[in-house]
Amino acid sequence: MQPIYLDNAASTRVSDDVLARMTEVMRTAYGNPSAAHPQGAAARAYIETARTQLLTAFGDTGGTTGVSPVGDIVWTSGCTEADALAVLGAARARAGSIVLSSIEHPAVSAAAKNLETEGRRVLHVAPDATGVLDPEAFAEACRAGDGGASVAAIVMVQNEIGVVQPVAAIAAAIRRVAPACHIHCDAAQAFGKVALDATTLGVDSIAIAGHKFHGPKGTGALWLRGGAELRPLWVGGGQQGGLRGGTQDAPGAAGLGLAAERAIIQ
Predict the structure, then answer these.
(1) Is the pTM of this model over 0.90?
(2) What digits encode the pLDDT tens for the residues 196-210?
């Protein structure tokens, strides 16, 4: 009997066109994207096309209208790394407490726990009986202790119970009491399913994973608002503005960009 796969919330099958795009890049644009020669330029071109596709999918369409986008894309190995870069990177760039919901994905809660072992204060905000977070309660936690919050993290769609959080309202409430706080949103379960406009959501960073919407495993991205300061998780050759050292994965970026474009269209 042929099994029926009902676990797309955990991971999806890579679509045929994404697989074809990645194969095309691996066969024709195999140079180092940082190289000056034609093969490097070809790889870079695929990455830049994917960047435009992702920014458009995030609603950050300035690049297609002649106006600079509000944010940029940091390519990562998945949502876990993107969450860690946002939470750890933002917290290590500024003093203050870390505030997160008590229903965050372990990618966020484990990063906060790591900061706690470094001596940082971590506060958790519980949802109500329906699983929804109260914006004012979240803001009050961001006001409390250690000069206010340096980082706040909100999951857009909870990965176990599927509750959609009022992220824009929470972000607006936080801004009133802690305007310098870096607000991060894990959108792994939301991207392609819930309307998302990074330019109006009020957050500073958004994390996604390609394998949640028919993209390749091992790919992810962090949308980062312009001017937001992060410390890198590791250093290397200075790629991606120094935020993530290492040769960029052109096939992975190309596959992720196409999958994101398809997710929004469909």
Answers:
(1) yes
(2) 999 999 999 999 999
